[in-house]
Amino acid sequence: QVRLVESGGGLVQAGGSLRLSCAASGSIFSINAMGWYRQAPGKQRELVAVETSGGSTNYADSVKGRFTISRDNAENTVYLQMNSLKPEDTAVYYCNVKYRRSSSGFTWDYWGQGTQVTVSS
Fold first, then answer.
1. CB neighbours of residue 25 within 10 Å
2. What is the pLDDT of residues 2-41, one digit of tens each?
3. Are 111 and 4 in contact (CB under 8 A)?
4. In sequence order, what are the residues at sequence separation of 6 or more whose Cβ sits closer than 8 angstroms to the Cβ of residue 87?
């Protein structure tokens, strides 16, 4: 079993900052990628940012220059620093991990429960 513990969501005014964190634990041999997705009411879940084990990052165009993803590989933790927040960033943010349970195993996909981020205008 894998466990993802998310924290850092909340209510902030436009222009403010929040930092999300997500710690993975459990039956993990290696992690291929960790990232953040978000889902606003009435919309599909979308990628926010992801970082691979090799250090490559990918961001949604809407957050480039404002959000920064980082990882602590030793702690299997991923962070999302969100600056210059806008009301349209309001959503439930979900942590995602792509991991293996063994050296030659299948790559599994696991989601956190989500943390609410609300940006007021």
1. 13
2. 999 999 999 999 999 999 999 999 999 999 999 999 999 9
3. yes
4. 14, 119, 120, 121
